[in-house]
Amino acid sequence: MISNVSRISSQATKVIVILLVFLLSACSSTKKLEPETLWLKKQRVYINGVQSKDPSVINQLVQKPNQKILGIPVKLMLYNSSGRNSNFINNWLRRIGEPPVIYTDEISEASVNRLKNFYKRKGYLNVNVNSEIEVNNKATKAKQSITIETKKPFKIDEIDIQSPDARFDSLISKNESVLPLKKGMILNLANIDDDRQELTSLLRNQGIYDFQKSSISYEIRGDTTAQSESKKLRVRRIIDSSAVYRPFQIGRTKVFSEGATEDDFTLAIVAGIEFFGFDELSFDSKVVARRISYKPGVVYNEKLLASTVDLIGDLNHFLYPNIELVAESDQTLTASIYLRDRKRYALNADLDLTHSNIQQLGTTLRSSILARNVFGSHENLSLALSGSIGNSLLPSDNLTTELGVDINLSVPRLWMILPTGNLVSEQKHPQTTLQIGTNFQKNLGLDRQTFNAIYRFNYRTDRRRYSFEFPSITYVNHLNPDNFFSIYRNTFDQLNLLADPLRGDSTYTNFFNTNLAIEDAELNIPEGANAFIEAALQGALPLSLEETVEVRRIEERRNRLTENNFIVSSSFNYSFQNSENRNTPNYSQFGLKFELAGALLDFIDSSPSESIFKVPFAQYIKTEINTIKHFELSDDTRFATRFFAGIAIPFGSGNNVPFVRSYFAGGSNDIRSWNAYTLGPGITNQINEFNDANFKITWSNELRFDLSQSIKGALFTDIGNIWNVLDDTEVEEAIFKGWSSFKDVAVGAGVGLRYDFDYFLFRVDLGWKIYNPAFSGDNRWFYNQSNNRPIFNVGINHPF
C-alpha cells in the first residue's frame, strides 16, 4: 500500500510540473487583448505614502488585477490557453479561468469615488484620492498607483439626546456604556448604524414592544471644511416625536398541542402557562413550561423568542414551534405557542464517505432507531448500528472493517442517582447521556473489540460548551495477540537479527522455520519467537548484555500493544467558538481537556496487582489544549492556523499510557508530509510500524484560496513531533529532554486541491518533508535528502 502511495505521489508531481510548464510556455498575458486596450498588470494602493494591502481598502476597488498564485496569474493563463473554437475543453478552460482585466478611466474613477466614500464614512471627511497609470512601450499593459491622503479624522466631541419623553433620556443615559458611540472616538458611520441597532434592541428589551428602528435618527453638527482646526463634531440621538414609552409585559401564555385551539380543553396550567389539547397531552407540560421564556408577568424582551425556540428544540420532541404575539389594550402581550409533535419512533439510515489517519477512504453505513419520551419526561432512547469498510494506509492491511452497536439514553436535564434540584437551569441547555456500546475493528492488524460505558453531562451558554464524563469505562480486548510479529514486521526483523547467530546451532532448531534453508530460516511465529524471548530473558542463550536488553525492550513493547486494557477515567472538556460554522470569516475556536484515569480504582483496590478481572487498569493524567483561528484576507483568500499540545503522564502502578490513549504524528489531518504513525517519537526513524508517545506538539498553517466557485487551492506548513516523557521508555532518542528537544520538531510543507460539493469538501494534499529530525546534521534539510518523495493524502473537509 505504501509503495502504491509513493507511485501515486511521484506521478502527481510529474503531472503538476508538466501542467506548469504547459501554462508558462503556451500562454501570453496579453494574448486575447483587443486592439487599443490595456491589461491591468499591477495595482498598488498607497495610504499616506505607505503601500497598503488592507483587505477592507482593496475591496473598495471596482476592478483589481487578475488573481495570482505565487505571483503567477494562473487563472488568466488557463483562460488564454483556450482556443477560439467552441468545444468542451475550450469552454471548460474559459469557465475555470479568468479573462484579462481591462483598465479604463471610467472604472478607475469609480474606484476613486468608492474609496472617498469609504474613508468619509470612517470620519476622514477631507480625504484626497488620486489615480495614476504607467503604460509599457507596447501600450498593452498598465500599472496603476492609487494614492490616498487621509488627513486628520473628525472626532465626536459631544453626544446628547432629543426625545419626546424624559424616560427615554434616562434609560439611554443609564446604558450609555453599552452603546457603540463614545465621546472622543472617530466619527464612523458604521458605528452610527450599529448604535441605532443597539439602541433599538435596548429599548425593545426594556419591554417597549412596538418601538421601531425607523424612530431613531442622528444629527451631526460641526465645521467639516478642510480649513477646520478642531476636527470635532457634535452628535445628537433623536427619538421621533411619535414614539411612545410604553413597556409591555407578557400577560397570558397559551400552548397548543397539534391541532388544538382555544375552544378545546385546558389540560394543564403550569406556572401560569395554559396548555390546550384534546384528551391528553403527548408531552410533559412541566418540562415544557420550564423551557418557555414567555412566562406571564415577564417584561417583553427580544431574546425571549430565540430562547424559547432553542430550549424547546433541545427536547427533540417537536418540529419548529410557531409563536405569535398579540398586543392587548392594557400594555400586555398574549403569547400563543403552537407545537407539533415529531413521530414517536424514527428510523434513520445514512451512507457516508469517511476518512481517518489509518483509513485513506472508506464507506460507512449507519442505521439507528430512536424512541422519544420513553419515560414520560422527554428522555430519548436510541439504538444505533454502524459498519464501515475502506482501504488502509497501514502496512500488511489492505482493507479496514468495523462494526459497532451503541445504546444511548438522553435526558434533558442533569440526571444523577442523588437529587440535584435545579442545579443547572434549563437556560444552560443541560443534557445527560448514558451510553453503552461495543465496537469490532479489523484495521490495526491484531484486531480488537472495544466495550464502552459512559456517563456524560453537557451544558452550554452562548458560545461556550462544558462537558463532564464520570465515569468513562473502556475495555479493549485484543482478539489476535499471537499475530503480533506477523503484523509488526519491523519489530520481528529486529528480533530475528538478534537470533541470527543461533540459526546454524542444532540446539536451537526448534526456534526456527525448518522448511527453509538455514541461511533463510526465520523464527517461527509465534512459537519460535516466544521460545527465543523466554530463553533470552532467562539467560539461557549466548547473548551479550546489550542484546538481552534489546530483547527485553521488544517483549515490553509487545506486552504493551497486545495486553488488554481496562480504563476507568473522568474528564472535563471546555470549548469556545465564535460561530457554529467553521466557514464563517475570522472563525476561532479554543479547547481544553483534562482527564484522570485509574485514581478511583486505585483508591478502591489496594492490592499490589492493581487489576480488575485480571486485567491491569490504566493510571494516567492527561491534559490537552487546542486552538484554531481563521483570518479573512480577501473575498477569496483565507489563512487558517491551528496549535495543539497534549501530554499524558502515567502514575501509580502505570509505567506507560495505553496505546489507545497515546499520541501519534502524521496523516492527512496532522503533519501531512508523513504518513500516520511514521513520525517520531523524537529523532527515531520509524523503528516500529505504529510509533506512538505520550507528549505531542503540532502547529499547522494553511493559506486557502479560490480557483473557481467549486475548486479551491491551498498552501500549507505543518510543524511538530511526539516524544516520550516520564514513562518507562528507555530509547534515548525518543525521550523529551526539555527545550533542547524543540530543535527536533519536524517541518513539512505542501500544496492542496479541494473540490466543494456544498455539503462536504473533498481534499487532496501533497506534502514534502522540509526538515526531518530522523536524520542528523544538514541531512535533515530537504535539499540534502536524496529520496524526498511527496506524501499523497486524501481527506474529507478541511483539516482544521
CATH architecture of the largest domain: Beta Barrel
User: What fold name stands as the CATH topology of the largest domain?
Assistant: Porin
Major sheet: arrangement of strands:
14-15-16-17-18-19-20-21-22-25-26-27-28-29-30-31
Q: Let me know the number of strands.
A: 31
The rounded Rg comes to 34 Å
Shape call: globular
What name goes with the CATH superfamily of the largest domain?
membrane protein fhac: a member of the omp85/tpsb transporter family
Structure in a nutshell:
By secondary structure, this protein is an alpha+beta fold. Helices cover 19% and strands 36% of the residues. The strands form 5 sheets. It has a 16-stranded antiparallel sheet. Strands 1, 2, 3, 4 and 5 form a 5-stranded mixed sheet that branches. A 5-stranded mixed sheet has the order 10-11-9-13-12.
Explained architecture:
With 800 residues, the chain is of the alpha+beta class. The protein folds into six domains: 2-149, membrane protein fhac (Ubiquitin-like (UB roll), Roll), CATH 3.10.20.310; 155-239, Ubiquitin-like (UB roll); 249-338, Roll (Ubiquitin-like (UB roll)), CATH 3.10.20.310; 363-477; 482-562, no CATH class; 573-796, membrane protein fhac: a member of the omp85/tpsb transporter family (Porin). Helix content is 19%, strand content 36%. The protein has 14 helices and 31 strands. Helix 11 (489-499) packs antiparallel against helix 13. The chain is globular, with a radius of gyration of 34 Å. Residues 1-6 have low confidence and may be disordered.
